[in-house]
Fold this protein.
Amino acid sequence: MIPLQHFLLIGAVLFSLGLFAVITRKNAIQILMGIELMINASILNMVAFGKYDKIDNTGQIFGLFIIILAAASVAVALVIIMNLYKRTQTIDPNQTKSLRG
Amino acid sequence: MDSVFTNYQILCFALTAITAPFLAFVFSLIFKKLAGAFGIVSITVSLVFSAILFFSIWQKQTFHFSFSWIKLGNVSVNIGILLNDLSVIMLLLVSFVALLVHIYSVEYIRKEALRYRYFAYLSLFCFAMLCVVIADNLFILYAFWELVGFASYLLIGFWFTKKKAVQANKKAFIMNRVGDVGFLIGLMILLSQFHTLDIETIFGAKGIIHSSFIHNGNWVSPFASIPDYWLTIAGFCFLLGACAKSAQFPLHSWLPDAMQGPTAVSSLIHAATMVAAGVFLLLRVSPLFNDVVLTTMASIGLLTAFMAATIALTQNDIKKVLAFSTISQLGFMVLAVGVKDNAAAIFHLSTHAFFKCLLFLAAGMVIHQLHHVKDDTKTKFDEQDMRNMGGLARFMPITTVVFIIAALSLSGLPFTSGYLSKDAILISVFEWASERGGVYWLFPVVISITSWLTTFYIFRVIFKTFFGDFKLPALINKKEKELHLHDPNLWMKIPTIILAVFCFGFFFALNPFSLEGSWLHHAFNLEPHAGGLLHLFVPIYINALSLVLIASAYFIYAKNKIVFTNHKSWYYQFSYHQWYFNVLYDKKLVGLILWKAKITFWFDKHIIDGIVHLSAKAILVLAEIVDWVDTHIVDAFVNGLANIVSSWSVWFKSVQNGKLQHYFIWMLFIFLSFIIYKVII
Amino acid sequence: MPGMRAGKTVRKRLKFRKEKDVVEQIIFYILTAIAIGSAAYVVLSQQLIRSVFMFFVTLFAVAGLYVFALADFVALTQIVIYVGGVLVLLLFAFLLSSKDALDTISEIPSGLLSANRLPAVLISLAFFGLLTYTFFNIDFQNLNWITSAQASGNVKSVTDDTIRNIGVNLMSRYLLPLEMISILLMMALIGATQIARKEPKAL
């Protein structure tokens, strides 16, 4: 059996990498991928903890929910990115400052 | 109330009489072409109302109207009108003489471009003088006194392009200032002593001056008690003021210089307005003078009269002679006040106003006509110099006649007004001297000599001007017929003829030999003269010698038969140079003042300025230090703070840069900090 | 002795399990390496297309890790939805956008420790450190919910059939969240199409 800590460590690594991508990338698609990475890390944690919930399966079911919601968010986000590109000819989130105070 | 007019009407009349010239002054400056008409109409109005006032006030009542103008503590300065005998006679005199001068001026000033100014100033002058006459209050009197001085300044300097005229009006103004200082100080003393400046309250019949007395070396009045020398000082102060205005020694030298003004102005100044104001002031405040002041006043009057008469003997300028004559006659008046014969002073003031005005106007006619000759022939000569004249009687008969009438009056020969008034003064002086005896006998002796000198110098003028040979044609190489010399037109003739009529004694006394019969003298003479002998003796010996002198003058100046004196003799030069007063004033006094000014200037420049500059330098150094401190410490601190803030703000601003990921970084940073704090600590 | 026999079989089975465990662990760590390596590539790559395809690998590897967490259904869902849905969507987006927009991305200065990435690196490391610190400070064997689950036999074993259980649970215990999520999903998709469609020229 793989110890729980290992899953959590892998999740931490993936999460940190996703975080790094979100912070550093100048490309909305890559940022989106960073977010997906972070979501994946959290799903990993969910299912790892779900091992100790055989009857209710809460961890797994919420993992599923997260996957579905992530898919929906990706769909919306991509559409937004496409529109953004159509309007500003860029997908760098830092270049879109029209809402800046 | 035995007057036909109510108080209100009298007030209205008085105000109209004084306001009319002022309105003329204003309108003359606005409607320049009608200036002469305004002047004549206004002064006629003044004359009419003055006459009405005269007949309703004279010897009947005293009209006094005043209201509180300024209140300073417990001292209230009133403004108002006081009409008593003195006021109304002066009012009438001033407006009458001024009217004649106005009419005369129309012709005299016809060719001047700025004649509207002349009439405006003349109106202002009359306004000021009328106000001086009817002021009920010494403060108001002082104010218009100053205005008289200012208006005379304007008129003397009417030909302001002439350098001499400018200097003359400056001199007149400055010398009058000296007197005004005295007047002002006197005013202050009276104010502190009596707490009022109202003439009627102080000097009236029931005035507080009569209830004040000298007690234990103190001058006690109902309000205050001050050392008694203040009384003397106050008297001297007013005397100084009057001396400046009436051109008495030692402040007389402005008057001859004032001849630079138009002759009509000279006539007005000399006859009734400006110089009369000084005597008027003395008459107004006469109860104030104590014995010391009166004696001094008499001495000054005597000295001035004598000095001016001697100077007049040798002057060649016809107007200068008349000017010194005026000074001399004013000396008579001051002497009369000094010997406490106010009636004689007023009487002489009135008669003198007529004949002196006439003398000036007649002289003006001569000058005016000669000026025309000068313009016509395009030659250059001094039209006022008697050495260029002579024999003018042939060309200007009316001028000659009126001049001679005026001269007779001035000389005090019988049937003239001067006979009455001058003899009144002489008799008073004799009586005064006989009361005191001793050295005071000098006064009647000197004044008698002065009287004879007066006769001599005025007939010298007549014979040099109107008789003898006409010297001008030879001087400018023309024949007499080419000069077209004749009497001036009616504008100038009529006023002189009217004045000539008033020079006769009938207007002042029905019996031209009886001084007591004179209504004018009688009105003011509270104590009739006792000595009947003097009344007989004085006129006779004066006039007898006068006739001899007239005859001698005729032979000296008209016929040139007797060489009277050497022009190089010291007494001739002394007289010709006007006793060297101008030299004294110009060289010594002015020099002294300039020398003092130089010292003060040096002191100012090197010591006071030095101190100022030193302190300025010290302050500059201090300023440098402060500046350094300011720049390097205070500013550095402030700027450093500002820099810190601005660099912080730049840094903080970079947080708010609108970049999504930076916000995210900060969010995570805060979140992490919080979590790490909670987990680890 | 039956006890002895039983002990023998147990030991035998233990040995088998031990071998199986070793294989299992090897595969797990390989998957772990693939997942982390590919994720790092996704994060650090300058070229979008490569990072997208490498993300493909990452998702597969993570799906494999789900299997090791005894969540095979989730792993399958991951592959179906993520790989089949999300990634295809990403590729579509990538393909639909013009090339030069993506080229500009490569101009960004690279390097993990360059100045403008330092805060990112620090924060990521801090997150990672925080998480690991937490994991190593927890005694997982004595956690309440783990011990109680072990005591009540509520622990999954490798042979358990989880899919049926999940289906039953979805339709009973988690019916409401499921419905809500389905509605949300529908709304998201409708919204996405609404945003994505071309705007009418005259509104």
Q: What stands out?
A: The mean pLDDT of chain A is 84. DSSP finds three helices and no strands in chain A. Chain A touches chain C through 73 residues (CB under 8 Å).
